[in-house]
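Example record

The entry below shows one chain as it appears in the dataset: sequence first, then structure tokens.
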Amino acid sequence: MSGGNGDRKQSLLRRLPPVDAVVDHDDLSEAVRALGRGIVTHHVRHTIDELRTVILSAPDAAPETDLDCVAQHAHRRLRRHDPLPRILNGTGVILHSGLGRAPLSDVARDAVTRAGAYSLLEVDRARGDRLARDSRASELLCALTGADAALVVNNNAAATLLILTALAQGKEVVCSRGEMVEIGGSFRIPEVMEASGAELVAVGATNITRLSDYENAITERTGALLVVHTSNYRILGFTGAPTIAEISALAHRHDLPMVHDVGSGSLLSPEELGLGDEPPVGKSILDGADVVCMSGDKLLGGPQAGIILGKRTYVDHMRKHPLARALRVDKMTIAALEATLALFLDAETLRDRHAVTRMLTLSQDDLRPRAEAFAAIIREHGPTDAAPAVIDTTSETGSGALPPLQIPSVAVAVDSPVGPDRLARALREQDPGVFSRIQDDRVCLDLRTLLPGEEEQAARIVADVLTTLTS
């Protein structure tokens, strides 16, 4: 090591300020008031440790370590580690997994706030007796789908695991090769089945499975027939599969349960939504499926949850299984789910009050005036050479729901003299952060996924960032 490097290293290390001096710096005073001295001190210590590591490993690349610079680094670290900070979603992806999937409706958010105090989670108000925490949600689910009974667990993978464990542990489960799906986080149906203690019997081919394939696979060891809706991809062209009604009838002839994992799960038909081809959950029940499971935070537009629907004898058996306790949901989830489900009882107001349904059904004519107003704010408050353009684009559902569907949408496209990547990053780092997408070397903000009232705030942030980057 050269002497110059060693001298710089020692100089930087000596100038690292004490933790308390950084915490008391003016740049962090607002954070101390808002978050408390303890959490700010925690992040300041980590900041100094990170700087010390950089100095020791690469002193030439290390930043300055005077008090002002360290306070600025600590402030940036606090921003990065905000507890679930609010962001503005201009990506055009409605169910964005990285940004929390479904945005909850106002009534669902209010319900979560109420549930944060004491609440009637497991008590019958009139009798004072204990009741299942998901009893109210289950009643609504049955009313909306026609199911005999319902059970709520913490996500759809958990629902699938509980169903297979309770109904088919130690037995064989017949499923089409074309439905060996991988869900989020690299989890695959065969692996979930293995964890349940059931044995997978794959039948048919990737593109075609016939009813006879299921029937030929049934033995005395068969515990269930499983159909997994390929909600996160589609196989097109030369394809074929029996209907849910046909598979259900086959299962019942052999006294077996027919299980349908519908994945993203919609309570609305394609006709009611006006787009897509996602079959409504109620149709699976009507077609004879004994057990159906779906996600709560996709097309349903609620909190993360796994929803199990079906015949009472099967659902009650799962409710009593020890695994159900390990997979149960908390009061916040129950509150948000109940409020979300209640919205579906009023078709006339659903579109206005349910965020996901509203986003899915907005037309380009609905979005264009909002985009024009967005661009006008950038022109008024941004740099003089800002030239935002209102463009036609496409949105997508996201999170594996309605995968082939490209929804015509409207966005505001912004050129940046420093390049689109730097502008997009600068927008993400604001408070609140603005998430966008890059298209044709421009930063684009899709109006479909900005919630009502967010356009002006997002546009002003874009204008301010453009001004800063070009000054």
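Notes for this example: Residues 125 and 281 are 31 Å apart (CA to CA). The first strand starts at residue 87 and ends at 89.
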